From TrEMBL:
This is DNA-binding transcriptional regulator, GntR family. PROSITE patterns: HTH_GNTR (PS50949). One of its GO terms (molecular function) is DNA-binding transcription factor activity. Keywords: DNA-binding, Transcription, Transcription regulation. CDD domains: WHTH_GntR. It comes from Pseudomonas palleroniana. Gene3D superfamilies: GntR ligand-binding domain-like, Winged helix-like DNA-binding domain superfamily/Winged helix DNA-binding domain. The keyword DNA-binding applies. Residues 5-72 form the HTH gntR-type domain. The keyword Nucleotide-binding does not apply. PANTHER family: GNTR FAMILY REGULATORY PROTEIN, TRANSCRIPTIONAL REGULATOR, GNTR FAMILY.
Amino acid sequence: MSLSLSLADQIVRELRADIIGGRLSPGMSLIEMDLVKGYNASRNTIREALHRLSQERLTRYVRNKGVMVRRVERKEVHDLFMVRRTLELQAIAQSRALTNSQSECMQSSIEAAGLACEREDWRAVATHSLVFHQQIVGLMCSTLFDDFFAQIIAQLRLMFCAAPNEQCFQLPWLERDQEIYTLLVGNNKLAALEAMSLYLDDSERLSLALFDHP
């Protein structure tokens, strides 16, 4: 039983990572038999993994179609940003000076987003930005918060898919992520908190606007 649960954990993590990476988008089907073959897993294990993804609000069952990656609705945006404010602002507020490892990981995410921007790979830009914000929550050194926030950024990634122009939606955040990182490196928590608060306010406003286009 423990081995089966461990495999289910792995499948959930990998499918969630595919969502965060933009490889699975809203409306895509998760076909049970394909997953059974792909992961060399039992049907029960796959069903458990899909059920858990449904609990994480990443998939839904559609009659006559099966399990599909779900679409985030406008009414969910406020809750997602309430969680972001709670965790990201708290992480900055209680953070200490960044360790070399923390700084290097954040810098790598910022640089990877910049390189993706140069390639005009906006899907990758979004992914690296989300990873950067996951690293901010990681400053709290809480496995529980890390696991929970992974579910949140997966939902955010699904929300990004509502953008009619991914470049216009993603481009403004590159410089602001860099600003927050620079403030954290300088251990300027008050300024970093203010920058993050404004970032989240603007991001929520623009995210809501995604659902207002025809």
